[in-house]
Amino acid sequence: MVLTVLTDDQIKTILADLTADEFDGFRKVISTALHEYSTNTHNIEDGTYHQPERVSTENLKTGATTLYMPSVGPQGMGCKVVTLSSSKASQDPSKPSIQPTGAVTLLSPTGEPIGFLHAKTLTAFRTALSSTCLLARRTTVKTLTVFGTGLQAYWHVRLALLVRGTTIRHVNVINRRFSDDARDFMKQFYRVPANIKEREGWTETTFGILTPGYGEFKRLLREQTRDADVVYCCTPSTEELFEAEVLTSHEGRRKGRLIAAIGSYTPQMRELPEGLLLQATKHEKPHWHFHKHAPEGGVIVVDTLDGALKEAGEIISAGLQPTQLVELGELIMLRRMKDEEDAASELEKLDFSGTPSIKSAFSGSDGASVPEPRSSISKDSTKTSGSSSSKGPSMLRRSSSQRSADKRKKEDALVRWLKDGTVIYKSVGLGLMDLSVGMHMIQLAKEKGIGTRIEGF
User: Bias regions of kind Low complexity — which residues (predicted)?
Assistant: First the structure.
């Protein structure tokens, strides 16, 4: 068995000149893993997929938190150990600033060690990769607003430029202070070679940074958050990054946005305001009004249901229930659609019986609720089985046609929400991401001749 060792610099080298095809390879790997995990495509009882809860320890001397994240999949097993400054320590000048660092150990299905990868860049990349699965389907992506200047923030912006660089015009960066890290964050984008910028289509994209030291900070914070088509929250904050009213007011709801919060990962942390989550999961009765709002799905998208309920401070604080959450893996197949016609056949396979709140995404354009496909089919089958002789072929054809029309209306509403509506994604991370992306990283490193390979380990 061959053991592949990849340093952080080697992983950076692999990702620095990532082509669209290479990115698509990573996207397919993580999409498949999340989809199969969430929809039980493989039998978990057989041990194909297993995601144990992560464990954490605290170092009182350094103020560091260490996370232990195991996972099992068809590719094999993996465990990541990563250390970073806690939210409290990051605000204490006497404590060292520790950016997420550690290692991922990968093993074959029979237990042989096959990979040992530095976790720093890998973690940021795989987190941004999952968020980008939702970004790729958005209709309008012109303005990005990102909170934070760490690696997570960098890779969220970097992958957005790779996927939608031809449409992105402005990138707004909001940080609590203009530090050396913030300065280096901005420099990284200017250092990207001109040929790569041209290939990805963002040579004319402008970048700006906003900090509280600026006199108009509060006003610009509101404007840059409200004007954004995509908002990335990438900070270990214990306070809401902006007021809920910025996006829950009638003016704020006129525009659909993708909002991804990936920086907070404990019950004490929170980036998104509680009011925003409550608004997004509210089920309003159909009524006439003069305010035009973007489509809302009635749910928050999460990477892992169990993890979000136990570790996501925003979810816990808002008191959201499992029926108000839907896993990204249940929607990830929509990324594979090439056009609206594909949506019908793919969406028929989705089962939202465990998340009834998603029904709000299946409402008609006039706000009227559309019956569940399963219930409408069962009702029709009961009627036709008992009185088929009383209905002619034309009546049966009309009944079938109506069911198809109702189903298509629901499917169109879901696609419209994911493309144009307000979609909130909360990620706390799971080891399955490290396992799937890490395995693919080893394969790509071998193709590029990068890394250290130890025969007979």
Answer: 374-401
With residue 240 as reference, give the H or E element that holds it.
none
Q: At residue 219, does pLDDT exceed 90?
A: yes
Higher pLDDT, residue 362 or 86: 86
- What are the pLDDT digits (tens) for 31-49? 999 998 888 755 545 557 7
Instruction: Judge whether 151 and 235 are in contact, CB under 8 Å.
Output: no
Q: Give the pLDDT confidence score for residue 435 in this predicted structure.
A: 97
Q: CA 145, 148, 149, 151 torsion: positive or negative?
A: negative
Do residues 239 and 201 touch, judged by C-beta distance below 8 A? no
Q: What is the mean pLDDT of residues 365-378?
A: 34
Nearest to 212, CA basis, from 180, 241, 183, 243:
241
Q: State how far the Cα of 415 lies from the Cα of 444, in Å rounded to an integer.
A: 33
pLDDT tens track for 233-285: 999 898 999 999 999 999 999 999 999 999 988 898 999 999 999 999 987 65
Q: Which whole number is the average pLDDT over 359-364?
A: 43
- The encoded tokens of residue 78 equal 């993996």
Cβ–Cβ under 8 Å, residues 331 and 255? no
SS (H, E, C) 280-339: HCCCCCCCCCCCCCCCECCCEEECCHHHHHHHCHHHHHHCCCHHHEEEHHHHHHHHHCCC
Q: Which residues pair with 79 in a beta bridge?
A: 70, 105
Give exposure, 427-437, as e/b (b: 16+ Cβ within 10 Å).
bbbbbbbbbbb
DSSP H or E stretch at residue 139: none
Distance CA 411, CA 419 (A): 12
Closest CA to 98 of 65, 60, 58: 65
- Predicted TM-score of the model (pTM): 0.83
**For residue 228, with 0-12 CB atoms within 10 Å meaning exposed, 13-18 middle and 19 or more buried, which class applies?**
buried
Nearest 5°: CA angle at 104, between 99 and 110?
A: 170
Q: What is the mean pLDDT of the chain?
A: 84
| DSSP codes, 335-394 | GG-SSHHHHHHHHTT---TT-GGGGGGG--TTS-----HHHHHHHHHHHHHHHGGGS-HH
- Summarised one tens digit per residue, pLDDT across range 417-440 is 999 999 999 999 999 999 999 999
